[in-house]
Design brief:
The complex is a heterotrimer. By secondary structure, chain A is mainly alpha-helical. Chain A is built from 14 helices and 2 strands; from the N terminus they run αααααααααααββααα. Chain A is globular, with a radius of gyration of 20 Å. Chain B folds into 3 domains: 123 residues, no CATH class; 115 residues, no CATH class; 167 residues, no CATH class. A 5-stranded antiparallel beta sheet of chain B has the order 1-2-4-5-3, with helices on both faces. The mean pLDDT of chain B is 83. The chains are: A mainly alpha, B alpha+beta, C mainly alpha.
């Protein structure tokens, strides 16, 4: 057994919720607002609904394969060697790339808005060092840490919400469905890709919940919680800073918290609000890196996944520095990436369908 | 370095081999004749003298018991002089000889006689091995050797000066019991027994330390304490192989789960009421002879924020005080680093008037904020340590020098900004608010790390530091119990008495992870609700 | 140049941190091979990057392989 630790169902819920919020919290309002405009909340709800269905399928896969982890599932389906090859490419070409995106996100954010003069390398090293420390301490420890952070996120969110209440303008979300349903559906599609498709990584963690049978509710509830939070933030940014501002901004949530101003005293607290984002990104990257290490260790039959933590961290570091040559490239690449992520994200679902059709008992 | 390690390993190996193959390999029951007391008094006395290397505090009182020569051996200072003089008074009475003439004439075994004579008053044991004689003398007994008898009598004459039970010096309360433990283990265990009058309060004694032979007692309430943890404590204590135990920290460092951490995972206290309360929660106390500090395990993070007085005051007040402590803990950890981060990287976070005033103060200061903070913090730590070690009379001088000369003068000279002095002072005072001294020290160390992080990465560095700290805290365990319990893993039923304290009638259950069998601790009927 | 030295320091510290683990894995050579395989590849990339040359982003391969498929839609 690669992982001896066990987490509780409650801890699993928290992990899923914070992972879902993850990097999405800062970017999702502008992604959604780009096409859905003021109907962001409808797009969000549709996306969340579809996301929940997707998560349900992910859980079904885990259930059908008796709560094995992803590598074991693939090995079961394709046979040992092909399964290993598929799993290897899954981890290297999807989860690894995803992890570098997440790491690069934090670097870009810091560079753009908070610390313009600090080299991105230093920012990446600091963040990665903490993340790798967490992965080395193991699943149980970083899950407990996530639990410890939950109240802070809740508090910060409540503060953000309450302090923004006076500035809400309901006219911002009117008129409803101005351009018909199509742009709404299209933007909800990108909401599914990011972040719900990324929840596939929890196929690596479900096996280590102490009661895997009860994870269905937890998985769905965690996703709904995280997704709900995202929709709330997206709607809030439309309500407060308006559609155009939201769509044009790179980090609308950050701009949102900039507008907090209560009696000229409680203002300019966006750095604290960035803390929400640090925490959720941290959780997301820890989970991803953990899954990556565990998966690769499983592929290579290494006894202890912790051995691979630092080399994989080094790879993450290098690749995260070169992944986007320029910001225009990122914009250009996004549609391709969506397609790419859909392929990988839906692959387990296809495997499950095939195994259902073949009807072979597992 | 490598060579040293190897040499040490070889030494240890030799020692283990020597332990494994003792030189005299005898079956247990057969004692070699040279170890048994001889019938010659002189020979016995000679042996004891040699063993103790003619130590000057070893007393040999020669006297005649009837027609036999006898010697009473004891260590000065360890025995009660009253008992010894009483003994001599008794045997030198004229009536003594008359009363016991049969012994003198009929040659009754002296040992039988002595037993009869002393039995009611003191515990008297009969021993016949040299080793036992030596142990008995070291334990503070008087040993009576009589000529032509190959047995010795141990007369319990223990009695040395101890500090009286006095008020606690380190954990003061306004309301609540004032007594504190002393250096004597028997007094200490008795203090707890007086509070918990139940036969289920079990006490298990062992001797640790090859040379010091220090008594260590493990105390717990059977049926409340978790048997697994009790077993674990015993196992860890049995593994200790050291020459001497002088203070409870010797034990603490051996039995703690994780060595490389600034955070204490074993609780220490000198208050009997704290020990009693912990025992009732199902925790285990370890008493060590020679120190007033008793260890309590398992110790969780939240325990270090709970003062004894929290339970002697109304619950709402204790709750507020506890929250105040947690706040102070964060200030003490992050105070200077947050200031550095804001001044260096995030000036936009400050309201404009404040920013202007701070900037005006800092105008003449020649150092960056990090260096400024480091200078002040190091000065403060030096002052603090100096104040701790100095005689009380000079302590006042230190505080005057610290407050006036360094604080005020540094600001006036323009070396340090006034705001920095304020930040550092608040940080220092916040540190003192913690009831547990060792938890405060952990923060003192970490504060400097956070200052460096803040100086180089601002709030981002502080956030990264907090993540690492949280990970570290969550990775700790105390005797198998997660250190951050009940915060992480979150256990709702245990939250009632952690960062806040609910009213006493709501504290129905014992902590869940520590104790699993005997959970309910009070019977709450609607009437007394 | 400075960056190369820092990169070497990073690789060195990784080896230093994992030093204890190597002893544990003396028996299973394969694990160590995997370890040094990934680490070696990573260090090569890092040193190449730190010497001032630009590494190609792995995304171009994804782009190249997916473009034809996407253009069908």
């Amino acid at each position: 057994m690669l992982e001896n630790g066990r987490i509780s169902v409650r801890q699993f819920t928290v992990l899923v919720a914070l992972y879902t919020v993850g990097t999405a919290i800062l970017i999702i309002p502008s992604v959604l607002a780009a096409k859905a405009m003021q109907d962001i909340w409808i797009a969000g709800l549709i996306g969340l609904g579809a996301g929940l269905v997707l998560v349900f399928f992910y859980w079904k896969i885990a259930e059908r394969f008796q709560y094995m982890n992803l590598v074991e599932i693939l090995e079961k389906c394709f046979g040992k060697w092909i399964g290993k090859a598929v799993a290897f490419s899954y981890f290297v070409f999807y989860l690894f790339i995803l992890s570098t995106f997440v790491l690069r996100d934090i670097g870009d954010f810091m560079l753009t808005v908070m610390m313009v003069e600090t080299p991105i390398e230093a920012i990446h090293i600091i963040f990665l060092a903490v993340v790798l420390y967490g992965v080395k301490l193991g699943l149980e420890t970083f899950t407990r840490t996530t639990e410890l952070f939950l109240p802070w996120i809740v508090i910060l969110f409540v503060v953000l919400f309450i302090t923004l209440l006076p500035q809400i303008e309901f006219t911002n979300i009117l008129p409803v469905m101005e351009n018909g349903i199509q742009p709404v559906l299209r933007s909800s599609l990108s909401f599914i890709v990011f972040p719900f498709l990324e929840l596939v990584v929890f196929l690596m963690i479900i096996p280590y919940v102490n009661e895997p049978k009860k994870t269905k509710k937890a998985f769905l509830f965690g996703t709904a919680l995280g997704g709900g939070l995202l929709i709330l933030i997206a709607t809030l940014s439309i309500l407060v800073i308006g559609v155009n501002e939201t769509a044009r901004s790179i980090y609308p949530t950050y701009d949102l918290s900039k507008t907090i101003n209560i009696r000229e005293f409680f203002q300019r607290v966006e750095a604290f609000m960035a803390l929400i984002w640090f925490i959720t990104v941290f959780v997301k990257l820890v989970v991803l890196t953990y899954a990556l290490c565990l998966g690769l260790a499983s592929v290579f039959n290494v006894q202890d996944y912790k051995l691979l933590t630092l080399p994989i961290g080094l790879m993450l570091y290098v690749v995260s520095l070169v992944i986007f040559p320029s910001s225009t490239y990122l914009i250009e690449f996004t549609p391709i990436y969506d397609f790419y992520a859909v392929i990988w994200g839906l692959m387990p679902v296809f495997i499950w369908l095939v195994s259902l059709v073949r009807g072979k008992p597992v | 370095m490598v060579f040293k390690k190897r040499a040490l390993k070889k030494l240890l190996k030799d020692k283990n081999e020597a332990d494994a193959h003792p030189q005299h390999e005898n079956p247990k029951n057969e004692v070699p004749p040279e170890d048994v007391l001889s019938t010659e008094l002189d020979q016995n006395v000679q042996y004891i003298r040699q063993t103790f290397g003619n130590s000057s505090d070893l007393s040999f009182s020669d006297f005649e018991l009837g027609h036999k020569k006898a010697v009473l051996v004891y260590l000065n200072g360890l025995v009660d002089k009253m008992i010894i003089s009483h003994f001599f008074e008794n045997i030198s009475r004229p009536e003594f000889l008359i009363e016991h003439s049969e012994f003198l004439t009929e040659k009754v075994e002296a040992s039988d006689f002595m037993k009869q004579f002393f039995a009611p008053a003191n515990k008297v044991n009969e021993i016949q091995l040299y080793k036992e004689v030596v142990t008995a003398i070291l334990a503070g007994n008087a040993v009576l050797l009589v000529d032509s008898i190959s047995h010795a009598l141990v007369i319990n004459a223990k009695g040395w000066r101890d500090r009286d039970v006095s008020e606690s010096a380190t954990e003061n309360v306004v309301r609540g019991p004032k007594e504190a433990f002393t250096e004597n283990i028997q007094t200490n265990t008795a203090l707890v027994r007086r509070k918990i009058k139940d036969p289920r309060l079990w006490l298990e004694k062992k001797e640790i330390g090859n040379i010091t032979q220090t008594s260590v007692s493990v105390m717990y309430i059977h049926s409340i304490a978790n048997d697994k943890i009790v077993k674990e404590v015993h196992e860890r204590l049995d593994k200790i192989d050291i020459d001497g135990i002088l203070e409870s920290n010797y034990i603490e460092e051996f039995i703690q789960d994780e060595v490389y951490t600034p955070f204490p995972t074993v609780f220490n206290t000198e208050r009997p009421d704290v020990v009693a309360a912990a025992l009732l929660e199902g925790r285990i106390a370890i008493f060590i002879d020679g120190t007033p500090f008793v260890l309590l395990v398992p110790a969780l993070f939240t325990h270090f924020f709970q003062a004894a007085e929290d339970y002697y005051q109304r619950w709402d007040i204790s709750t507020l005080l506890r929250l105040l402590r947690v706040t102070a803990y964060f200030i003490s950890l992050l105070g200077p680093s947050a200031y550095i981060a804001v001044i260096n990287f995030h000036q936009e976070m400050l309201p404009t008037p404040l920013l202007i005033s701070l900037a005006a103060q800092r105008e003449g200061v020649p150092f960056p904020a990090l260096i400024e903070a480091l200078i002040m913090e190091v000065t403060l730590e030096i002052l603090r340590e100096a104040g701790l070690r100095l005689p009380k009379a000079i302590g006042q001088t230190v505080s005057i020098v610290g407050a006036l000369v360094i604080g005020q003068a540094a600001v006036e000279a323009g070396i340090i900004s006034a705001a920095m002095v304020i930040v550092v002072s608040i940080t220092a005072i916040s540190n003192f608010i913690l009831p547990a001294y060792n938890m405060g020290i952990a923060v003192r160390i970490l504060r400097f790390l956070f200052m460096f992080l803040a100086g180089s990465f601002g709030l981002y560095g502080i956030a990264a530091g907090i993540f690492a700290l949280a990970l570290h805290l969550c990775s700790l365990r105390s005797f198998g119990i997660p250190y951050m319990e009940p915060l992480a893993p979150y256990i709702a039923s245990d939250m009632k008495d952690t960062l806040w304290r609910k009213p006493r009638w709501k504290l129905v259950t014992r902590p869940r992870l520590i104790n699993q069998t005997n959970i309910v601790r009070e019977n709450v009927t609607p009437k007394n609700k | 140049m400075v960056y190369t030295i820092i990169s070497l320091l990073i690789i060195g510290s990784i080896l230093l941190i994992d030093k204890r683990k190597f002893k544990k894995y003396k028996q299973s050579r394969k694990d160590i091979w995997v370890y040094f395989g990934i680490l070696g590849f990573g260090s090569c990339l890092l040193l190449y990057h730190s010497s001032g040359r630009t590494l190609p982003t792995p995304l171009i391969w994804i782009e190249a392989s997916l473009k034809p498929i996407i253009s069908i839609f």
